[in-house]
UniProtKB/TrEMBL annotation:
Its cofactor is Cu(2+). This is Polyphenol oxidase, chloroplastic. The keyword Endoplasmic reticulum does not apply. Residues 552-577 are annotated as: Disordered. The lineage of its organism: Eukaryota, Viridiplantae, Streptophyta, Embryophyta, Tracheophyta. It comes from the Eukaryota. GO terms for molecular function: catechol oxidase activity; metal ion binding.
């Protein structure tokens, strides 16, 4: 690959530049010729890099004349893989890159949450545990919804850069492993420490194979749910395939890695047992004067910020539908420098808190950019709070405020705001009878009684009841009576028969009437005539969106998988790949990839 002429799109240099083009403004958005396209910091992160590796792997296979070739993954989430794998370290090997941090060569243990001025903690045993706790946080604690794990929506026309919408894994370990590997003596920490150059280091592909593997683990082992939003499913990228032909591929066609012909070697996942625990429980947070909290504020010292929770008591159903999320927004920093700060919740002594503690929420971290459409970067970072708060609070004591502590580690940043938002992305795609908070906010469920015909010269009245089996016992004091249709006689009217209709919003009544956990998809409406003669045209449910500007979120299902049987070639652990290769040469391992599926796309 390195020997191909640089005019060949399959050459190593051009392949590395594919990554650069997709993250340093090389492409404009279709239909928005002045908006740059970016594959980081949003829900495009996982699918873009999966397709990118796929074609890289296919090109390698073609050049090696071995269509079972599989990229190795750098297994840094496991103690045995927490240093640069041996295969990348021999200076005579094409896998070697001299632009790496010379202080981080083996046996130095990687810091999965690294920021330049922060040296990893020592001794190595602590660093290993720190990494395992951090993996648990990023894969489980901070990954409770599709948006929090895979990144925020990024749709056609969205500004570049969107305020940083990176998911938990993109933030860490992804960014820190880039920054930890790159050479700090280079201006932008080339190669790995900046995206335009990162893919020039062959270790990039092993790093991203592991990121891709973590995505699979989240979906297959941890029950993570993919987005069903068509804006995500239909997003597309262009790559050169192994025949040096450009092909267009869509997000929806990479969601099942077995369809792309590979699986990951099934190995132990040690961080599953590394759940952080609270350092202290039941710490009382006292509100400090709001006046001291003026935003935007420079993060030039440790900042304590009191945040009010908009809703401290939420029902079980509300919690299932919407995650309570801490949002640190409007983070401004110079894009050409590395930046990192740590975030703690209800922690009175940040010096004592580590990723082994629940109080440490995680970090905001970014690598320097070489080129950028704006000189200041605007970023944001999010952390789910429900389970963390539950672990931290003393029994039955539910506080309406939380204390957030920001600790600068490197770079200069300004904080725009700190607040709580609700993330409903894990409940999208449920039945309409179960509507998420955003949908409920966007549209009221309304009972419509239409086509009511009555003689316009006579008085008319009927009462309307909901789920009431005995209307005689129901009084206006009861939830069951929705209200009445009533009209006075008209003296003159252009038509002799009046056509009317009446609407009742029913959402809050249904909530009060239903038994816990029991949500019915039918309601019973009872009409009781009190005076006049009336004909009813129809009774139905409609949705009234007038009170909100919001759009309803699509709840389209993911397309059924193509269940053609594919054979898989497992991507091996990096440190084992030599042995695997030898075994394969000796004919001990038979693996065959099924190929050609992309030609039709
Ligand atoms: Cu596209 Cu790890 O970067």
């Amino acid at each position: 690959m390195k020997q191909l002429p640089t005019s060949d799109p399959r050459s190593f240099m051009q392949q590395a530049d594919v990554h650069c083009a997709y993250c340093n403004g090389g492409y404009k958005q279709k239909g928005y010729s002045n908006v740059s396209f970016q594959v980081h910091r949003s829900w495009l992160f996982f699918p873009f890099h999966r397709w990118y590796l796929y074609f890289f792997e296919r090109i390698c296979g073609k050049l090696l004349q071995d269509d079972t070739f599989a990229l190795p993954f750098w297994n840094y989430d496991s103690p045995s893989g927490m240093q640069i794998p041996a295969m990348f370290n021999e200076s005579s090997s094409p896998l070697y890159d001299r632009l790496r941090n010379q202080d981080h060569l083996p046996p130095v243990v990687v810091d999965l949450n690294w920021g330049s001025r922060v040296t990893g903690i020592s001794p190595d045993k602590n660093q290993i545990n720190y990494n395992l706790n951090l993996m648990y946080k990023q894969m489980i604690t901070n990954a409770t919804t599709p948006r929090l794990f895979m990144g925020q929506p990024y749709r056609a026309g969205d500004e570049y850069p969107t305020s940083s919408g990176s998911g938990s894994i993109e933030i860490a370990p992804h960014i820190p492993v880039h920054a930890w590997t790159g050479d700090p003596k280079q201006h932008f920490m080339e190669n790995m420490g900046t995206f335009y150059a990162a893919a020039r280091d062959p270790i990039f592909y092993a790093h991203h194979a592991n990121i891709d593997r973590l995505w699979n683990i989240w979906v297959n082992n941890l029950g993570g749910k993919l987005f069903s939003d068509p804006d995500w499913l239909e997003s597309s990228f262009v790559f050169y395939n192994e025949e040096a032909k450009p092909v267009t591929v869509k997000v929806k066609d990479c969601l099942d890695s077995t369809r792309l012909g590979y699986v990951y070697e099934d190995i132990d996942i040690p961080w599953l047992d590394a759940k952080p625990t609270p350092r202290r429980r039941g710490v009382r947070i006292v509100a400090i004067s709001q006046a001291t909290q003026v935003f935007p504020t420079a993060l030039d010292r440790v900042l304590d910020i009191i945040v009010t929770r908009p809703k401290k008591l939420r029902s079980k159903e509300e919690k299932e539908e919407a995650e309570e999320v801490l949002l640190i927004d409007g983070i401004e920093y110079d894009f050409s420098k590395q930046v990192k700060f740590d975030v703690y919740l209800n922690e009175c002594d940040v010096e004592l808190s580590t990723p082994a503690n629940t109080e440490f929420l995680g970090s905001f971290v970014d690598v320097p950019y070489h080129k950028h459409p704006t000189s200041m970067e605007k970023g944001s970072v999010r952390f789910p709070l429900s389970s963390v708060l539950k672990e931290l609070q003393g029994s039955d004591e539910i506080s309406g405020i939380v204390m957030v502590t920001l600790v600068p580690q490197c770079g200069d940043a300004t904080i725009g705001s700190v607040m709580i938002e609700f993330d409903t992305s894990k409940s999208s795609g449920r039945l309409k009878k179960l509507r998420n908070t955003k949908e409920k906010e966007a549209a009221e469920e309304v009972l419509l009684i239409g086509g009511i015909e009555n003689d316009c010269s006579k008085q008319v009245k009927f009462d309307v009841y909901l789920n009431e089996c005995d209307v005689e016992l129901s009084m206006p004091a009861n939830t069951e009576i929705l209200g009445s249709f009533v009209d006075v006689p008209y003296h003159r009217h252009p038509t002799s028969m009046e056509k009317g209709s009446i609407r009742f919003s029913i959402f809050s009544m249904l909530k009060e009437l239903q038994r816990t956990g029991d949500i019915s998809d039918v309601v019973m409406v009872t009409l009781a005539l009190r005076c006049g003669d009336v004909t009813i045209g129809g009774v139905m449910i409609e949705f009234d969106t007038h009170r909100a500007r919001g759009e309803l979120e699509g709840s389209q299902a993911v397309e059924p998988r193509n269940d053609r049987a594919y054979k898989h070639h497992p991507r091996p652990k990096a440190e084992e790949s030599k042995a695997t290769l030898a075994a394969r040469k000796a004919g001990l391992i038979q693996m065959a990839g099924e190929h050609g599926m992309l030609h039709g796309l």
